[in-house]
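Before a colleague's protein record goes any further, I have to sign it off. What it holds is a sequence and that sequence's fold in token form. My question to you is simply how this chain folds and whether the tokens agree. Thanks in advance; the entry in question is below:
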Amino acid sequence: MLVGKELLDKNRSLSHLPEDEIAKGCGYVGPSGRVLRKSFYRALVEAKGIKLRSNGPGRAGNRSSRGRQAEFRTRVHGNGNLLIGHAYTKKLGLEPGQEFKIDIKKDSGAIYLVPLK
């Protein structure tokens, strides 16, 4: 991810493209391919010399700087998919491309992911 003068220069050179393409061109893309807009915009503002105050732990009630938080809850989506988010796979140390066998225990309703070698 570009920062500072490099970010501003690259942003100018890509200014004819849509915002998401500029962000991608500057390296603001997550592991899943999702554009990291907030990080991109924040870096642009800081590159222009504007200091942003972080919302640290002392700012009670303001969770905006922490992003999405792992609540260890999910639900079945309308299309029948059950999503396990990045926070959970990161906490378990899972890497992209790892494969698992899904083991279902009907009596308890538990779902287990068993790593494949």
Remarks:
- Residues 37-47 form the longest helix (11 residues).
- Residues 58-64 have pLDDT under 50 and may be disordered.
